[in-house]
Design a protein that fits this description.
six-stranded antiparallel β-sheet, 8 strands, alpha+beta, about 240 residues, globular, endopeptidase fold (from Nostoc punctiforme), two-stranded antiparallel sheet
Length: about 240
């Protein structure tokens, strides 16, 4: 091997050895009496984790599209509820205040607290994606607000996901505070679950209906709601109440 190549190889080896402390962990002195074979340092094991392959994989991962990000943000805000409501025959007004059902004497305190909170929010306007009384509610935003502030329960973000949670309840066994669901996205109850309200008593429920309306009490016996009724669920906090 020519002399220049020998010197170049030696210089490269020296540079690599000099750079090792930048990546290696400090060596720990072996306890006295430890056999020399057991203290041979494993430099590869002491090197800091440095994985170019993992870095390349991360850089090659496709970024979340703007459309996907927007959809995710919309779901977390409760969007998707009522936006396709057909409005075919939906009553313009709900049950008159004087005709709102009273709770039974044996209703639990937890359920009474829920209904009381919900009734205090009547007449707040409907806003798609709304989750606060200062701005307005959509149906799932109203339900989430009531449960969060009345019993400290954090429900899913929209009516479809709320429908998948909780214990299924027969209509004849519904109690105050149970959730009632409707299929308002298609004609006469044929679409997806897209609306939710809170059951009160005697077939009445309170909800935030749709654009142009406010939080109010309606009756399940009203033909519009009866045709679109999808079922009732009991959130976990109410199962034993």
């Amino acid at each position: 091997m020519p002399t220049k190549r020998i010197f170049a190889a030696a210089a490269l080896a020296g540079a690599l050895l000099t750079s090792l402390p930048l990546f290696a962990e400090p060596l720990t002195a072996a306890p006295a009496g430890t056999p020399s074979a057991s203290v041979t340092p494993n430099l590869m094991g002491q090197l800091a984790v440095f994985s170019p392959a993992a870095m390349l994989a991360q850089s090659a991962a496709p970024a979340q599209s703007a459309k996907t990000a927007k959809a995710a943000a919309g779901t977390s805000a409760g969007w998707g509820d009522d936006e396709d409501a057909d409005g075919d025959g939906m009553p313009d007004a709900g049950v008159a205040n004087g005709a709102v059902a009273s709770l039974a004497a044996d209703t639990s305190d937890l359920r009474k607290t829920l209904i009381s909170m919900a009734m205090q929010l009547r007449d707040i306007r409907y806003v798609r994606g709304g989750r606060d009384p200062s701005t307005g509610f959509d149906c799932s935003g109203f339900v989430r607000y009531v449960f969060a502030h009345a019993v400290g329960l954090d429900l899913p973000t929209n009516s479809a996901s709320q429908f998948l949670a909780g214990l299924k309840v027969d209509r004849s066994d519904m109690k105050p505070g149970d959730l009632v669901f409707f299929r308002t996205a298609g004609k006469r109850g044929q679409g997806r679950v897209s609306h939710v309200g809170i059951y009160i008593a005697n077939g009445q429920f309170i909800h935030s209906p749709s654009r142009g309306k406010t939080v109010r009490v309606d009756s399940l016996d009203e033909s519009y709601w009866a045709q679109r009724f999808a079922g009732a669920k009991r959130p976990g906090a109410l199962v034993r109440s």
